[in-house]
Amino acid sequence: VQLVESGGGLVQPGGSLRLSCVASGFTFSSSYMSWVRQAPGKGLEWLATAYPAGSTYYTDSVKGRFTISRDNAKNTVYLQMDSLKPEDTAVYYCAKGTVRGQGTQVTVSS
């Protein structure tokens, strides 16, 4: 299993970013995929999951602001993040079960 995230960066409050995660080494189209994050000094926080059939689920703190999607033809899962807040600052990881990628840093600051 290999997961490679990209798309992080520095953004102002209220801004948007789209994270991407390219997966390999397993059957992506039949796997549920998640995004999690870890803020400085805090534990891992689950954010969203996209199931193969299309269902999506979100934690309350990002519902309505973040959108998870997947492109099975590209073995890629995305996280569109809108209305970003300083408290969204964290390292973001995509995950297949307990396996995570290397992460991508998102910093929300003016």
Write the layout of secondary structure elements.
Elements: E1 2-6, E2 9-11, E3 17-24, E4 33-38, E5 44-50, E6 56-58, E7 66-71, E8 76-81, E9 90-96, E10 99-100, E11 104-108
Parallel strand pairs: 2-11
Antiparallel strand pairs: 1-3, 3-8, 4-5, 4-9, 5-6, 7-8, 9-10, 9-11
Tell me what the structure shows:
The chain has 110 residues and is mainly beta. It is built from no helices and 11 strands. It has strands at 2-6, 9-11, 17-24, 33-38, 44-50, 56-58, 66-71, 76-81, 90-96, 99-100, 104-108. The strands form 2 sheets. Strands 2, 4, 5, 6, 9, 10 and 11 form a 7-stranded mixed sheet that branches. A 4-stranded antiparallel sheet has the order 1-3-8-7, with no helix packed on it. Strand 4 (33-38) and strand 5 (44-50) form a beta hairpin. The radius of gyration is 13 Å and the shape is globular.
Strand coverage percent? over 45%
Provide mean pLDDT, rounded.
Answer: 97
Helical content stands at under 10%
Give me the secondary-structure category: mainly beta
The biggest beta sheet reads: 7 strands, mixed
Number of H/I helices: 0
What low-confidence regions span 5 or more consecutive residues with pLDDT below 50?
Answer: none
Shape verdict? globular
Radius of gyration: 13 Å
How far from one another are the termini? 37 Å
Number of strands: 11
* N-to-C order of helices and strands: EEEEEEEEEEE
Keywords:
single chain, 110 residues, mainly beta, 7-stranded mixed β-sheet, 11 strands, 0% helix, globular
